[in-house]
Amino acid sequence: MVKRGISDMYHMPANDLRLINMYAQQRAREQGEHTLPAPIALALGEPHFRTPEHIRSAALKTIQDEEITYGPAGGWPWLKELIAEKVKRVNGYDITAENTAITMGGTGAIQTALNAIIENGDEVLIPDPAWPQYHAQITCSGGIPVRYALSPMRGWLPDLEQLEGLVNPRTRMLIINTPANPTGRVFPQHVIAELLHFALHHDLYLLSDECYDEIVFDDKHVSPATFLTPQEFEAGNVLCVYSFSKTYAMTGWRIGYIVASKEMIRTITHVLDSDHTNISKIVQRAAAAALTGPRSDEMLAVYRSHRDLALTILQRTHHYAYTPGGTFYLLLDITPPDGLPVHARDFAYALLCERNIIVAPGTSFGHVASKYVRISLTAPVEDIAHGIEEICAFIDR
Length: 397
Ligand SMILES: Cc1ncc(COP(=O)(O)O)c(C=O)c1O
Hints:
This protein is α/β, with parallel strands linked by helices. The chain contains 14 helices and 13 strands.
């Protein structure tokens, strides 16, 4: 078999989300930033907040007081202990520090898991629409991404029958993501149970991306690991990925973690060791401060109020379709009133050129959302209010 990898990575097209942002920057450069007001930016999944003060202080104190040496590949034991406590408290299942490894964000956790498990030509089932990186990461590990649909007709939930039809002897892993990017959908408990059953029945690894586990408004986030006894969890099929990026506005710090069986964590730790040795102690101390420090619901309250504002505008302008239960995203159907077909990429470029608003075309996330755009609700409230009004008017023009 031909080794996948280098050539696939070289030829990988930039996704539409990256392209629209690059285009916006180029446009600002060419037209002169002083003649063109800054666009309303509703494309990126980046919290608008600064990392809380106590977290930043912990990092500074570490620089002042501690030796910054190499550290253990899977993370410092004191942070792993805190993570085990957090998983029990927030995610509701029992693990120990040996079930955890600290990674370079959720991104690093997913890539490490893929590198540990996926062999050349293995197929990995990923949602459509999904966070664009899965596709690139699977390709990078030599695997083949196979998309399963999350259809708007089913409330952006998967269809087990369709999943059954995609399994073949080369299928090795199922990736699920809830609360979900880009839909904002929080999968109900029974759907998680069915997906777990499906993965175990076909002897697949189940990689559960729970990076938005604490950004949930109405529903409760349920991890597939909660359905397993500690012994069943140690069988090793289920891996759960978490991140500090979104919960604590720490995107640039690059820290997350993976929770899996002790045996799997041993393999993953070896992969981490060969990949980047360890995450900086400064960042790990900051993460420890995030877990032990004062908890404020301010960010969550703001995201909820932004979502509610967005939904009020969508209802008033007759564009409401569903209520995202978590994350800070929603997908908006851009079909015009005459029902003529529309393509999200063309729409997003026209919106930028004519209304100076950046959104993420649904085509960034696969094929299913090609007549949708993703709106990120992390922007300042006035940008959300004005931006969504303008987008709706643009759809109806
Ligand atoms: C669904 C999903 N998973 C994982 C990540 C990775 O986040 P990070 O590497 O910052 O933890 C993101 C980031 O946007 C995401 O949306």
